[in-house]
Design a protein that fits this description.
The complex is a heterotrimer of chains A (about 800), B (about 160) and C (about 300).
Chain A (H helix, E strand, L loop, with lengths): L12 H6 L15 E7 L5 E7 L1 H4 L4 E6 L6 E2 L6 E2 L5 E2 L5 E7 L2 H8 L3 E6 L6 H4 L28 E9 L2 H7 L2 E9 L11 E6 L5 E5 L4 H12 L9 E4 L16 H10 L5 E4 L2 H6 L6 E10 L5 E13 L5 H11 L8 E10 L13 H19 L3 H8 L18 H12 L12 E12 L9 E7 L5 E5 L8 H13 L6 E4 L17 H28 L6 E4 L2 E4 L6 E3 L8 E2 L5 E2 L4 E6 L23 E12 L5 E11 L6 H20 L30 E7 L21 H13 L10 H8 L4 H4 L24
Helix pairs in contact in A: 10-11, 10-16, 13-14, 15-16
Chain B lengths: L5 E2 L5 E7 L2 E7 L5 H8 L18 E4 L2 E4 L12 E3 L1 H5 L5 H8 L9 H14 L5 H7 L11 H13 L1
Parallel strand pairs in B: 2-6
Antiparallel strand pairs in B: 2-3, 4-5, 4-6
Helix pairs in contact in B: 3-6
Chain C lengths: L7 E3 L4 H11 L3 E4 L5 H6 L7 E4 L9 E6 L2 E10 L4 H6 L1 H6 L1 H8 L4 H4 L4 H7 L6 H7 L3 E6 L2 E6 H4 E3 L2 E2 L6 E9 L4 E8 L10 E8 L3 E7 L6 E2 L1 H7 L6 H9 L1 H4 L10 H23 L12
Parallel strand pairs in C: 1-3, 2-3
Antiparallel strand pairs in C: 4-5, 5-10, 6-7, 6-10, 8-9, 11-12, 12-13, 13-14
Helix pairs in contact in C: 10-11, 11-13
The chains are: A alpha+beta (about 800), B alpha+beta (about 160), C alpha+beta (about 300).
């Protein structure tokens, strides 16, 4: 192949290396640009009694002050449970209750302090146990009235926003038949995306009534859709809204959907004719965008003494925050896949999405899979230990294969899990004990398997337009976003392969919903597959048109034609060569002087028509909610100082099945970057709320994301290729996956090194050192919490008061 | 160039600085932050707003040849000084460092890139053939969430070896 | 975010001018040198000064000078001016040669872009409990050099810190530098800083050890009390004695009497206490080894 499998220089890299790349905050709107500052709730749960904006309005330079009264509409992606500005009550510390729009940022900031809000505090829901108990305080008394997608199951009258139940076979029987049944509880706190670019958006509601938004977003079309639905009461529909998305400075899921962006839409409408910018501070990035949910999970695994898994019972209670319009889907996705990549005949999964008075949760790289793999892959290694079977062999024995029945009844796609396991184990030197020269240090190795499927609605489609230029170069317009993963380069390679135009002559244009065709969202690691299929279809359509016009003009049978080096050639006639540039705009001139053909255009659309989210709400059987899984395996060698608890990752390796590596270097980049981001959640990132729900470390000083000095000594990426039949050239997506196994490989390595099993995250040097000295960190950490649960994991009773 | 000695609150004073080799004059209030003035009044977009607390390095510029966080400097402080941003660096064509960053596919989302390039440029100006540890330390104040730093360090070392 | 608070800005051209302004405004003024602490505080509305006094125009404050007494070559005083940045210290040949532990400390302080602006004197004036400069200078019995309307004075570092973000600086006074006496005897030192990872981080705890030939020790601790503290009981225990495993154990046992760590979101008091013990042990051994010529290179992390 000419382009597929190669690693050309990224087509967006020159812009980024020279500083020419434009992000939303870099666009100049001139002197008429207005600035906004939001007024935030200091309470986790309170009724709004009154908002007095009079003093703020009087400040010179203030244009408008907006509250929920101006916009009493709900919005949301999967469930409309959220307000642009709440009118009745606030549900997390930092929630916006009003906004000041002013001529300059300083004035907006000054005036925002003058807005007086009177609250009546309510008891906040800051403990999962209480949230699910019978004496609960309701976060959403109106839950039963919310519009939602049909495959979510909120329980009105409770704090359960969604409950995904998956039942296959008979777990009780499976446990009876097992030789060993082992169960335990694991907890994972909340995490923050920390993209270096904060959320920022500029909105202009022009004098014709058209709303244009320049948004730092992964999802221009979904933003348009969510806004159109939310603003429908004002008479706006999709034709009236345009979303433009320049380069994004990191997304990781945090810039998917709609979180703070709708505020800008509302403000723009109120100051008609003037553009207004809303840029989040770093602190707001932490507490008022999306957070990764916290979860407490109980895993019960039944195994035969030969290592065969007979059944799994996996119960997960998720701290999903004050609004779950997006976060509920994380809970849903896990509820379908929390078996992990294993062949398990008897399955009981309960994934419960609980409203709490902490910040709203949403998509974060891994989409629930990072969260559940910590417990599951820790548990797998522990069960192997109890059986006396090697942890890698145990996984190999039970690893899922193509054609196996998944937890919800559909069949597993082709996957190279065995190869991934073998190669990761070989790379880490599995089975070879390493000893440190330093007597203070111990070295351990940890292993984990992983999988993930894109969690999308069944009609998440991708489209592409392609057009030639006079010089034979190509423009591709898609609405898949370049968020750094290299999508544009990969799409160029797909088109390049079909049309033989070199990647350097292909441009991929940033999304603009007025010009670029539909893409559901750039999430779920699915755009190489979905958007790639669309681009391939568009390129193939162009190729078909090229051959058709050459046949018409030259009388050569089209099935004897092929493309090579931007030229049409004929298998039967070695002398026939027609460069694309000669006719892809101008057409082909006949001997009579007229021209046949004309500009060659292509359009492609990909819709996963085989998916369906309809299934039995009690068992999740039926339907095909996940398009396919990407699988892999990872391992780490960790050196621990027994006195200080400090850990150094000597080596991390991750093998992932990409189906077909369209651009191997980009996949390697995802592995190196994702592994570090994953390691950070285990080793460094430590979110802390106080007992009133306030986020205490909403800054990089105390929420530590890794620097160049924190890299593992060695990271080894491994690419497996078991083709995905319906993927472009056999490719499937690789992006989130590289973060997913990080937590369990570290936990398992520490257990291997020190005989210390840590069941809560993060696993900091402090926790390890204290544990080695007989001190349980949970007993001494004080009154802060990483998610909505205070107390020992083992004390948590997985009870819900709901009747279902 | 005469330094500004007294400026009252809310009143603008004219400061003069050499920006990417060019003498520029701009009016600033005492509480104007250098990063905002560079971006809003002087038209340079490469220094980015990442955290506004000096923790992420996205706002890095070179002040009299030294890397600094523009979000922690008042614009008025640079009266009479020299500032270099990525735009200025590239004006005469790509530097060896930039070429190495291209060859190593060193960036993904690119938001940290201007800060990284300037920090690494300062390093290579002072230590033309840095060690791996020196390269890592030089950019340790530039947070990157995408790349895991590996290709950035490789590019810096490659640029060093070229000399 | 933009600074909403409005203030006046002055850049005095002489020390006297600066002192006059500070005397006039008292607590309504803030001194600006590197700004890495101050600007963020004003931006977050934690400080609302009426006037910001930029001292970068005052001549003579940017020097690192080692002055020896004319007739006695072994007696000297290192003066670090108020405008000396951590990068200046890091690159200074006299610091590298005569006070290598100061250079060692700068390697773990923030990052290059901060070090190019942040000043040591500013760090000492900020008086945050986790400040790195304080404990280092305490073991050297350094003194702050202060100038005010009433003239000049020297404040021993042990008396400089009152509590978190509070020093003994009076209205109208400005710290012009810090004077560090060059130890007369052969000596070696070690600075150990507990951070949450290898990247830029504030100290969760720090230990500084200075050992003189003849087994005389100075130890000081950072981030484990409201201000940097000298471990006087430990120093008394170790005085004149050869370092042994047992002696180190006894020294570590005295720690709860010397320091008062707290639990906050950065660390628990249990971990701080435990780690201070580990760092004290490793610091003592490293300092003694350095004194004997076979210790780890300055800048090597011991934890």
């Amino acid at each position: 192949m000419n382009s597929i499998g190669k690693s050309p220089q990224r087509i967006d890299l020159l812009e980024k290396v020279t500083g020419a790349a434009t992000y939303v905050d870099d666009i100049d709107f001139g002197a008429r640009l207005l600035h906004a500052e939001v007024v935030e709730s200091p309470h986790a749960h309170a009724l709004i009694k009154s908002i007095d904006t009079s003093a703020a309005e009087k400040v010179p330079g203030v244009v408008r002050v907006i509250t929920g009264k101006d916009f009493p509409y709900r919005f949301g992606l999967y469930m409309q449970d959220r307000f642009i500005f709440p009118t009745d009550r606030v549900r997390f510390v930092g929630e916006q209750v009003a906004a000041v729009v002013a001529r300059d940022a300083k004035t907006a900031k000054r005036a925002a302090k003058l807005v007086k809000v009177v609250y009546k505090e309510l008891e906040p829901v800051l403990d999962l146990t209480k949230a699910l108990s019978d004496e609960l305080v309701l976060v959403h008394p109106d839950l039963g009235n919310y519009t939602r997608c049909p495959w979510f199951f909120p329980q009105a009258g409770t704090n359960i926003a969604h409950w995904r139940k998956t039942r296959k076979g008979d777990v009780e029987k499976a446990f009876k038949e097992a030789d060993l049944v082992f169960e335990d509880t694991y907890t994972v706190p909340r995490y923050s995306h920390c993209a270096i670019e904060p959320h920022v958006i500029v909105g202009l509601y022009d004098l014709t009534g058209r709303l244009t938004l320049w948004s730092a977003s992964q999802s221009p079309y979904t933003q348009r859709n969510v806004m159109a639905q939310a603003l429908a009461p004002l008479g706006l529909s999709h034709k009236d809204i345009r979303v433009v998305t320049p380069y994004v400075g990191g997304g990781f899921g945090g810039k998917a959907g709609v979180s703070m962006e709708i505020i800008c839409a509302a403000l723009a409408i109120m100051v008609k004719g003037q553009p207004v910018k809303v840029r989040w501070s770093r602190a707001q990035e932490f507490y008022n965008t999306y957070q990764r949910q916290g979860v407490i999970a109980r895993i019960k695994l039944g195994v035969k003494k030969d290592g065969t898994i007979t059944g799994i019972e996996h119960t997960l209670h998720w701290d999903a925050g004050g609004y779950v319009e997006y976060g509920a889907n994380v809970v849903n996705a896990v509820g379908l896949s929390a078996t992990g990549p294993y062949r398990i005949p008897n399955v009981k999964i309960d994934s419960v999405c609980v409203y709490t008075n902490l910040p709203p949760s949403g998509p974060y790289r891994g989409f629930g899979y990072s969260e559940f793999h910590f417990g599951l892959e820790s548990h797998m290694t522990r069960v192997a230990q109890k059986l006396g079977i090697d942890a890698v062999e145990f996984r190999k024995k039970n690893a899922i294969r193509e054609g196996d029945t998944l937890a919800y009844g559909a069949k597993m796609n082709p996957c190279g899990m065995q190869e991934a396991i073998d190669r990761a184990a070989k790379e880490i030197g599995w089975g070879k004990k390493e000893v440190s020269k330093d007597p203070n240090k111990a070295i351990g190795k940890g292993f984990a398997c992983f999988w993930k499927a894109p969690a999308m609605p069944p009609n998440a489609a991708s489209c592409a337009f392609t057009k030639f230029n006079e010089d034979g170069s190509l423009n591709i317009t898609i609405s898949g976003m370049e968020i750094g993963q290299g999508l544009f380069t990969v799409m160029a390679q797909v088109a390049s392969e079909i049309l033989t135009v070199p990647v350097e002559k292909i441009r991929v244009e940033l999304p603009d919903t007025d010009r670029n065709p539909y893409e559901w969202q750039t999430v779920g690691s699915h755009v190489t597959w979905g958007c790639g299929n669309a681009v391939k279809a568009a390129a193939e359509e162009m190729r078909g048109k090229i051959f058709e016009i050459v046949e018409r003009a030259h009388g050569i049978r089209r099935d004897s034609l092929y493309l090579e080096n931007e030229t049409v050639k004929c298998r039967d006639r070695a002398d026939f060569e027609l460069p694309l540039r000669d006719f892809v705009i101008n057409g082909i001139q006949t001997k009579h002087g007229n021209f046949l053909g004309g500009p060659i255009l292509g359009s492609g659309m990909f819709m996963p028509e085989f998916t369906s989210a309809l299934s039995d709400p009690e068992t999740s059987q039926g339907g095909h909610p996940n398009v396919h899984y990407t699988v892999g395996a990872a391992a780490a060698t960790v050196e621990v100082d027994k006195q200080t608890g400090k850990m150094r990752v000597l080596k991390a390796t991750l093998a992932v099945d990409a189906g077909k590596a369209i651009n191997p270097e980009l996949i390697n980049s995802q592995i190196v970057g994702g592994v570090l981001q994953g390691l950070a959640t285990v080793l460094y990132e430590d979110i802390r709320f106080d007992h009133k729900g306030k986020l205490l470390n909403a800054n990089f000083t105390d929420y530590k994301i890794p620097t160049s000095l924190d890299m593992p000594v060695e990271t080894v990426p491994i690419i497996i290729e078991t083709p995905q039949p319906d993927g472009p050239f056999g490719a499937r997506g690789v992006a989130e996956h590289t973060m997913i196994p990080a937590a369990p490989i570290i936990a398992n390595a520490i257990d291997d090194a020190l005989g210390l099993r840590m069941k809560t995250l993060p696993i900091t040097g402090e926790k390890v050192a204290l544990a080695l000295n007989g001190i349980d960190y949970e007993n001494v950490k004080g009154s802060t919490m990483g998610f909505c649960y205070v107390g020992h994991a083992d004390a948590y009773k997985f009870k819900t008061s709901a009747k279902r | 160039m005469k330094s500004k000695s007294t400026t009252s609150r809310g009143i603008r004073a004219a400061i003069t600085l050499k920006l990417n080799g060019e003498t520029r004059r701009v009016d600033v209030e005492p509480n104007d932050i250098l990063l905002d003035v560079l971006r809003e009044s002087l038209g340079l977009k490469s220094p980015k707003i990442g955290c506004e607390q000096g923790d992420c390095g996205a706002c890095t510029v070179l002040l009299d040849g030294k890397s600094v966080r523009a979000c922690l400097i008042l614009a008025i402080e640079v009266d009479g000084h020299e500032i270099a941003t990525l735009e200025g660096l590239t004006a005469d064509g790509l530097t060896d460092l930039q070429k190495a960053l291209l060859e190593h596919n060193s960036f993904q989302c690119g938001f940290c890139a201007p800060g990284v390039v300037l920090s690494a440029t300062e390093l290579l100006n002072n230590h033309p053939t840095p060690t791996e540890e020196e390269a890592k330390e030089a950019v340790s104040g530039n947070l990157c969430r995408c790349t895991g730093y590996k290709p950035i360090i490789e590019a810096i070392l490659a640029a060093g070896r070229k000399r | 975010m933009a600074i909403a608070h409005q203030f006046e800005y002055v850049k005095p051209g002489t020390l006297r001018e600066g002192i006059r302004t500070l005397a006039r405004y008292g607590s309504r003024a803030q001194v600006l040198a590197g700004g890495t602490d101050l600007i963020s505080l004003i931006s977050d509305d934690k400080l609302l000064p009426e006037i910001v006094v930029d001292i970068k125009g005052i001549p003579g404050l940017d020097k690192i000078e080692l002055k020896r007494e004319p007739a006695r070559a072994t007696v000297g005083v290192l003066t670090i001016g108020a405008l000396v940045t951590f990068s200046d210290l890091r690159e200074s040949p006299v610091i590298a040669k005569k006070f290598p532990v100061i250079r060692e400390m700068t390697g773990w302080l923030a990052s290059v872009g901060i070090r190019n602006r942040a000043t040591m004197v500013g760090n000492l004036c900020s008086a945050v409990p986790c400040c790195d400069s304080g404990p280092i200078l305490q073991v050297y019995d350094a003194s702050m050099l202060v100038a005010g309307s009433n003239g000049k004075r020297k404040v021993p570092l042990n008396e400089w810190f009152v509590g978190p973000r509070k020093t003994v600086l009076k209205r109208g006074e400005i710290a012009t530098g810090v004077a560090v006496p060059l130890p007369k005897k052969k000596h070696a030192a070690c600075f150990v800083k507990l951070r949450r990872y290898e990247g830029e981080d504030l100290a969760q705890a720090s230990v500084t050890v200075l050992v003189f030939a003849g087994n005389s020790y100075r130890v000081s601790f950072g981030a484990v009390a409201p201000r940097p503290v000298r471990g006087e009981k430990i120093e008394a225990l170790l005085e004149g004695r050869e370092l042994t495993d047992d002696l180190i154990r006894q020294a570590v046992k005295l720690l709860p009497e010397e320091i008062a760590p707290i639990t906050d979101i950065r660390a628990t008091k249990e971990y701080r206490l435990h780690m201070t013990g580990v760092m004290l042990e490793r610091g003592l051994r490293a300092a003694v080894a350095r004194l004997n010529g076979n210790g780890p290179e300055y800048g090597t992390s011991l934890i």
